[in-house]
Amino acid sequence: MAERNNLFLDDKSTELFIWKKQLKQKGLEHISAEQLETITKQNIEKNKLEREKLEQQRLKGEKEKNIFKLIKAVEQHDQLTKEEASFIYNQSLLRAKVRINENRAKPIDILIYHVEDHNENLDIELYEPLAYLKKLLAQDLEELLTDIHDYIDKDIQQSIHNFNERYWHDIQIIVKDELKKHLSNNEDRSDGVHSAVMPDILEILKNKTTRQLEELEQSINERIADGKNIDISYWESLLSQLKISLARSRIQDRHQLLLEKKFKKINNEQLSISKDQETESFEDLEDKCSHSYDEAHYSPTLMNIDKFDFEIQEQYIDEIDDTNMLQQQRQSIMKSGSIKTDMENNWQDFISKFESDNDTTIGIVPIDVEYIWSDKYQPRKPRFSNRVHTGYEWNQYNRTHYDKNSPPPKTAQGYKFNIFYPNLIDKTTTPSYDIMACEDNKDFLIIKFHAGPPYEDIAFKIVNKEWNQSNKNGFRCQFQNNIFQLWFNFSKWKYRR
């Protein structure tokens, strides 16, 4: 074993190594070997204890770090759950608001926005809940119960919103009572109450406030709990009818509070509007006007033209010259009978660029017509500039029977429609076109353009051929700069024997 550990064949490798320079530096060079061994063992034990202490501290730190991560993960999960519940809840409110604004509100929507915290930013009519629920059919009441259950069945909803548990509990009691009346087809029927006893119960609960009904409920509960010499079934039936009456009373009180709050809000708004619209007396206005004139003056002091440079004086237009120029412009306009606006100029430029040697005009309306303001929305035909593209078809048949000196007859190879709609009332609606058959001649079609008021529909007769609707072959259908363009060419067919 010793030979196996003695890799370098050193006789002193198993002896205790003494670092004499270190001992001399520490002043321990004169101690014996036994004392040095004792000191060495003490240092080893001290280092071992220190390592164990550091290891415990490390494990403790990791444990605290893991606990902190776990707490943070739980908090993050709770926050995400809370945000999800809040999102679902707000979405239900948003759906209710949309349905109310679109006049297709469900009963649950009316009841949701009957809660005080939600009706401030929505201008809706405050329905009286009892009268509203009484008008519902049995099917609507069953659907309402399901909607209420889905709405209030949120675990975290009560903590993140001002959730009124008592309000929805009372609504459920009233809805169930109304549903029982519909199902039994007897409005005076109540579970467990004999018809002979019912008038007495209604008389007991009649004309009582919410406070009185709550006190009566407490008294009946105490009497039932005592259970001595009483008719348990009678008092339980009275208690069930009392809960219905108490729910109706609380809902009615809440409705009255909401009405008072809404009336107060309306009165405050009317008062603020009336204060803003208060008119000042004539004397106050006159004093204010005089003060403003004395303080700031209404117009700057007129400066003499001679004080300016000669270059500026040359650009100055005298009042008489300006009046003469304006009069000449008016006379020229009256003679011409039209005023060309920027739209007219753009239309003219477009028409000039639109000209082509291979195109033939199929119909055009004069463009120098200006409608007066009172006729702006009168029905009218739109202005247009259309072209039919003609040319030779050098197919195999024509190449055989014709040449360049005696070419074949020109045929229609496509059309370019340009309709001008500068004064559309509805700018969001794009003009469109329809294709209709020509009854008197099957070789032609009728293409009708429609854009909406004030422009009437306009139609043209075109050749009945298949369109090539590829952009590479010149097809265009767009509405830009008040001009609707429809350009297309016909598909070319190869001649076969």
Structure description:
- Helix 6 (138-152) runs antiparallel to helix 8 (165-184) and helix 8 packs across helix 11 (232-276).
- This protein is α+β, with helices and mostly antiparallel strands.
- 11% of the residues are buried.
- It is extended.
- The chain starts with a helix and ends in a 7-residue tail after the last strand.
- Among the domains are: 127-267, no CATH class; 345-490, no CATH class.
- The protein contains 16 helices and 9 strands.
- Residues 373-497 form the Splicing factor Cactin C-terminal domain.
- Residues 32-66 form a coiled coil.
- Residues 74-255 form the Splicing factor cactin central domain.
- Pfam families: Cactin_mid, CactinC_cactus.
Write the layout of secondary structure elements.
Layout: H1 2-5, H2 20-26, H3 33-101, H4 107-112, H5 129-134, H6 138-152, H7 157-160, H8 165-184, H9 198-205, H10 210-226, H11 232-276, H12 282-296, H13 310-315, H14 319-336, H15 342-354, E1 359-364, E2 383-391, H16 396-401, E3 411-420, E4 432-437, E5 444-450, E6 458-463, E7 467-468, E8 476-480, E9 483-490
Antiparallel strand pairs: 1-2, 2-3, 3-9, 4-5, 5-6, 7-9, 8-9
Helix pairs in contact: 6-8, 8-11, 10-11
